[in-house]
């Protein structure tokens, strides 16, 4: 099979067994998704709309008088909590069920956000950030695993795209609202974040099924880690994703500082991030229909490369420009195209690599890349931005290239279905 650069001209997978699915319209595919997908859609939209604090945390701590190094320490603590959340959430998801894990995570997340609101010094910020990371991260393996449990394989790319539609539509609306709220009073961000976490928790507990559950012995991490280490396709995806997600965290750290140095207000940052969510809300599902019938690894590689290019373009913005925000908007546009290409198919691809009884822990393994990236990327990005900004932006381009090459090289050595 030739490798053509498709309209992306990426190689097509063989025809699916169910030809009726292949011939369905986008609307028909969405209507055919299980009810659980739409319950998750509603809960994730509410929760993501209220994710106010983390995107504005760099600005909040700066306005509170904390240095870049202290801000980095808070992000690291949150990421360490998130790493613990992946291990805890992955096992609980397989042991006690998806719904119970989501309820524990989201109610705990609401409480931890209120605790961070009351922090009165660096020590309490670091401690509360750890609990924010621990509680907020636990629901991700559970929600992803539940999606895999209830959606047939031929519909999973569409299902992941629909769920991401909810996430990014909520993010777009929430970031615009968050920018306005931050200008008025940062307290509104913490209260709103906690309230929407609690609302999603109620939706999960009242309306979602438990999903696949396993015994205490079968849910141990040792068994899953042994399986992952022996799975070469998963390992290469793990490291490619680890490098790529480091690019995502620059938008909440170094890019926010760049915007401030260019003289723009918090609301401009909010509207730029809202643009990311709106683009995804309008275009990601149609793009997923072009990618779902193609081999996943080349598609994901292309998306990661575009993410690297988009982050790199930020380096061309300069305070001497009359409209420097246009450069940042172009950078975000290219980055968002890469995100739309890679993310829906990534979720479905990992599902195909995971044994049924280990889905929670495999989802947690992928989630771990986000938390490891969160532990390093925001702080490293801020420090590089202050000392050698062009090294930062060129480094982003390098990470995008390395991620793509990892996927392509392993893809050539393995048979993909």
Q: Your description of this structure?
A:
This protein is an all-alpha fold and 417 residues long. It has a single domain, classed as MFS general substrate transporter like domains (Growth Hormone, Chain: A), CATH 1.20.1250. It contains 18 helices and no strands. Helix 15 (296-313) runs antiparallel to helix 18. It is globular. The two termini are 13 Å apart. The model is unreliable at 1-9 (pLDDT under 50).
Topology:
Blueprint: H1 19-22, H2 26-31, H3 35-49, H4 53-63, H5 68-95, H6 98-117, H7 122-137, H8 139-150, H9 156-184, H10 187-207, H11 221-229, H12 232-248, H13 254-261, H14 266-291, H15 296-313, H16 325-353, H17 359-387, H18 389-413
Helix pairs in contact: 3-9, 3-10, 4-9, 5-6, 5-7, 5-8, 5-17, 6-7, 6-8, 6-10, 8-17, 9-14, 9-16, 12-15, 12-17, 12-18, 14-16, 15-16, 15-18, 17-18
Counted by DSSP, the helix tally is 18
Distance between the termini: 13 Å
Radius of gyration: 20 Å
Largest sheet: none
- Report helical residue fraction: over 70%
CATH T-level fold name: Growth Hormone, Chain: A
**Overall SS class:** mainly alpha
For the record, what is the CATH homologous superfamily label?
MFS general substrate transporter like domains
Low-confidence stretches: 1-9
Compute the average pLDDT.
84
What is the CATH architecture term? Up-down Bundle
Number of strands: 0
Percent strand: under 5%
Identify the CATH class: Mainly Alpha
- N-to-C order of helices and strands: HHHHHHHHHHHHHHHHHH
Number of structural units classed as domains: 1
Coarse shape: globular
